[in-house]
Amino acid sequence: MIRMIAVLLGLLLTATPSHADGKVFRHYGLADVSIPDQSAIIHFDEGIETLVIETRFQPGPPADEAADAPEVPFAWVVPLPSVPEDVFPASSGVFQSCRSVFQPHIRTNVMKFSWIPVCIAGLVVVLYLGRRTKWVRTIAATLILILILAPAMLPSLGRAGATAGVAAGAVTVHSQRIVGDYDTVVISADPIDPDAATDLAAWLDANEFTVAPDAASTIAAYVRDGWCFVASRLRTDASDPGVRTPHPLGFRFATEKPMYPLRLTGTQSGAVDIELFVFGEGTAQAAGFTLERCGETAYPESERPVWQRRKIVVGHEQLASIVGDAPHATHLRGSLTPAQMATDAELHLAPFQPYRNEVHSREAALHFSLNMGAVVLLVLTLVVFIMGRLIEVGNVRFLAMCIIPIIMASTFGLVMHTALPKFDVKSISLSWVLGERPEALASNLEAHFRSDVDYSSMGSVRSAIQVVLDDPATHERTRTNPSTNAVRSFDDGPGGLGLREVDGAVYLVVRDMTGRPLVSEVPFGSE
């Protein structure tokens, strides 16, 4: 009987799972990561740093609730170690592309074999208890075999898963201009003048760049160090009290070593979640930040870039212009307290060491923990079985001894499941990861167009596409952005749409997973 059970178990363990009827497509797991309070892209090369910052604003209540003014100013002051050579607008799609290509290694599929050691452990217990009665052993073995074979016979279940004025005193205005949605001005103060910090704070206040009183000492410290300030003012609707994420701002300036300014941010209360995407030579390190990913970069030149898991693919055209040909890229993340932001973050570029964080989907973490707990249960049950045979314990005492492996295995599995890093994971088609064919999507969109669409007008085609996207009856694959699981929109992030006009014809542009634009080979309205 035991020999027969061993043979059946061997056949079961070497068998391959079968799938239900239908075509099976490979899928790729995309982690649903949270967006931090601040994100920055940093490129450093030969004493020049390019810093692009994306930040979120939480508006406060207007000073006068009865005021009729529809807008309130948002002040954003960024300290820099030198006067920037350039201040430029950046696209939010650049950061969306970075988060996409810096994805951790995600385990979504874990072999579900936990029932095998559990059944074997149960078989050991039952055979021990019925060792003196043949018919008990026969019935127990039959039941155990049914329990073992039943999961293999059942189908598997899964889840998808304003212009500023120049003040008197020690303040110097280096430049002022409109950059995207911001009015920006670059100012500094004479570090030798004892009233420089006071004059600078007064200038900011007089020009509606209000700075909290707690920041006065920090501004004074920056002034003493000879730093300058880029003050930006964003006009936004005061009726929207929610968190705002306006387009990022970029700065290019000279510095001896790469850095990220933190002291002014640290004057606010509470911790701040910050992520840094650092491009340069080697692996970036900074105090208070943990390493999430580091790898070699790739700059695809083909129109249809091939996705590379081991490399960080720079596909977005603006990201490529920011980072140049940097050979390595590092993703750092940290939740910094005000005490940790008492000094600016100095980045050290150590010798290159590839690293990729590994996380599990919630379902994969559950099954991995069950598997490990079941193995522990089997091993401990065998230990109890051997001890029971050696000291000839009775059935009641043997059952009591079996409670210990159950408790220990359950505790081990629970601790492991708690310790495993888990992410909410979106399942996306691998065909989109490799570069979705825009002509197929254009054809699907065009099939829903009205008959009065002017195919030579970009505005008419854009309006027609928007009507299709706004219609809930449109097929989900056509309507949904696979990167965000939200309705597609006209943007430059992964999965975003765009239009391009060439010789009077309008072509569809689709962004792949790296943010690279893929242009349809066939224009709208062609037969």
Summary, kept brief:
By secondary structure, this protein is of the alpha+beta class. 32% of the residues lie in helices and 26% in strands. Strands 2, 3, 5, 10, 12, 14, 15, 16 and 19 form a nine-stranded mixed β-sheet that branches. Strands 4-9-8-7 form a four-stranded antiparallel β-sheet.
Structural topology:
Layout: H1 2-14, E1 27-31, E2 38-45, E3 48-55, E4 71-80, E5 86-89, H2 92-101, E6 105-107, H3 115-129, H4 134-153, E7 171-179, E8 182-189, H5 196-206, H6 216-224, E9 228-237, E10 249-254, E11 259-260, E12 272-280, E13 283-285, E14 290-298, E15 312-313, H7 317-323, E16 328-336, E17 345-346, E18 348-350, E19 355-356, E20 358-361, H8 362-391, H9 395-419, E21 422-423, E22 425-429, H10 430-433, H11 438-446, H12 458-470, H13 476-479, E23 497-502, E24 505-511, E25 517-519
Parallel strand pairs: 2-12, 6-20, 14-15, 20-21
Antiparallel strand pairs: 1-22, 2-3, 3-10, 4-9, 5-10, 7-8, 8-9, 11-17, 12-16, 13-18, 14-16, 14-19, 23-24, 24-25
Helix pairs in contact: 1-4, 3-4, 3-8, 5-6, 8-9
Integer-rounded radius of gyration:
31 Å
Q: How many β-strand stretches?
A: 25
| Strand composition percent | 25-35%
Q: Characterize the quaternary organization of these chains.
A: single chain
Determine the fraction of residues in helical runs and give it as a percent range: 25-40%
Cα(first) to Cα(last) distance is 71 Å
What average pLDDT do the residues reach? Answer: 75
**Which outline best applies?**
flat
Instruction: Please give the count of helices.
Output: 13
- Poorly predicted regions: 1-34, 60-72, 151-168, 237-241, 430-435
User: Strand count, sense and closure of the main sheet?
Assistant: 9 strands, mixed
